[in-house]
Amino acid sequence: MKRLRTAHRTIIASTALAALALSGAAVTTATADTSGKKSSSKSASSKGFTTTVVDFGAYTSKAEIRDPKKPEDRDPTVDATNNTLAVSPNEKFAVATNSYSDHLVVINVRSGRKIAEIKGYVSPRNILFAPDSKSFTVSDSARGVVDRISMFGFHVTQRLPLGAGVFGTAQSRDGKWLYANNASADTVTIVDLVNNRPTDVLTGFHEPRQGTKLSYSGDKLYVTNYGKGEVSIVDLENKGADPETIGDFKGLRAVSVNRAGDRLYAANSDSDEISVVNLVSGERTSVHVGKKPYGAALSPDGSVLLSGNMADNTLTAVRTKDNSVLGTVKSGPKGALKGPRQAISFSADSKTAWVLNDDLTVAEVDVDNREVTDILGD
Questions:
Q1: pLDDT of residue 88
Q2: pLDDT digits (tens, 9 = 90+) for 136-171
Q3: Who is most buried in 80, 117, 120, 226, counting CB within 10 A?
């Protein structure tokens, strides 16, 4: 059911706007009731693309992208496009973007309204919320940074210059450790977030992009190597050892690993399949899904996997108990799916999924009934 836009929710949105106006970050704010307003610390422009940045310590990016002909031309280091969506653990807010946008969108999940746009990025790649829902991180491969942004005023509180090409990220469940892929340097950097410093740079990967997942126990890191169609399994308790690899994926886009750590799910965009790998026996099963699956998102209870099928604007729901296809989520009277990719998040009870559209709206999906029930941020 479409959410009611009540006066109470308008007050909440207005409060968020006031906080933005007082912040030092360069942002454009907008809601359904208010036209965009801009407050910035410093800015420069280049043919329609903002290059406004926020100073943090001694580091300020100078990245300039002039009138790119294709979305992937926004980033001179990585020839790829992707999208990303994170929903706060308390399920109040969603933050989303794609790599051909110059801003992040903040949506109030409960009201369904877009409450802010955060400017100042060139090729934003991956967003992760902190466990306490009070902040989130975003990587930008063109600028070569991972920023932490506070939800109270939307200003940058921590900027990590990890190098051009920084792409996918994962974090420990306690939020103390960050693992950052670099698709240009073929590395993974491990960052101690408590002390704000990198501790290790792991090498030997092959164009690791967005797909990187940490095991539930926190002892293994699963890194997608798009350049070779392989997944590397890094033993974080013995980081000097050569990682185990699983190969023969076709257009590898995303992975998920179950809580027990004995099943890996991989999206094969070139063969329209989800690969299910038994990490104990090595046995592999292929599940045919929609066209160009970019996403392989596992529900928190481990019962359902959603494949984001970019080319036919659908989601395929797979029952993990027997790897059978439960059905397909399509556009319907309550809203449309538009180019779903990797950016899929679940509610804690596994009953709701949020899926990012190409236009940076978010489709809310009833998982059990496999239908779009609302569009957020429209």
A1: 98
A2: 999 999 999 999 999 999 999 999 999 999 999 999
A3: 120
Rounded Cα gap, residues 269 and 290, in angstroms: 9
Q: Which residues contact 238 (CB under 8 A, 6 or more apart)?
A: none
Q: How many CB atoms lie within 10 A of CB 66?
A: 10
| Confidence (pLDDT) at 73 | 83
pLDDT of 51 above 60: no
CA gap 242, 248 in Å, rounded: 19
Residue listed under structure tokens 């998040």: 345
Whole-number percent of the chain with pLDDT over 90: 75
Three-state DSSP state, 273 = strand
Which amino acid appears at position 233 of this protein?
A: I
290-324 pLDDT, tens digit per residue, is: 999 999 999 999 999 999 999 999 999 999 999 99
Query: pTM of this prediction?
Result: 0.84
Owner of token pair 């992009």: 209
Residue position matching structure tokens 């399949």: 273
- Among 263, 307, 314, smallest CA distance to 284 is for 263
Query: Quick check: 354 and 337 in contact, CB under 8 A?
Result: no
**Residue reference for tokens 């169609």:** 229
**CB distance 247 to 229 below 8 Å:** yes
Alpha-carbon distance of 66 to 46, in angstroms, equals: 6
Conformational region of residue 342, where left means phi above 0, alpha means psi within -120 to 50, and beta covers everything else? alpha
The DSSP result for 289-335, as a single string, is: -SSSB---EEPTTSSEEEEEETTTTEEEEEETTTTEEEEEE--BTTB
Measured between alpha carbons, how far is 259 from 289 in angstroms, rounded to an integer? 23
pLDDT tens digits along 247-269: 999 999 999 999 999 999 999 99
What's the sign of the alpha-carbon dihedral 46, 48, 49, 52?
positive
Q: What type of residue sits at position 270?
A: D
Between the CA of residue 336 and those of 123, 206, 269, what are the distances in Å?
Answer: 25, 35, 21
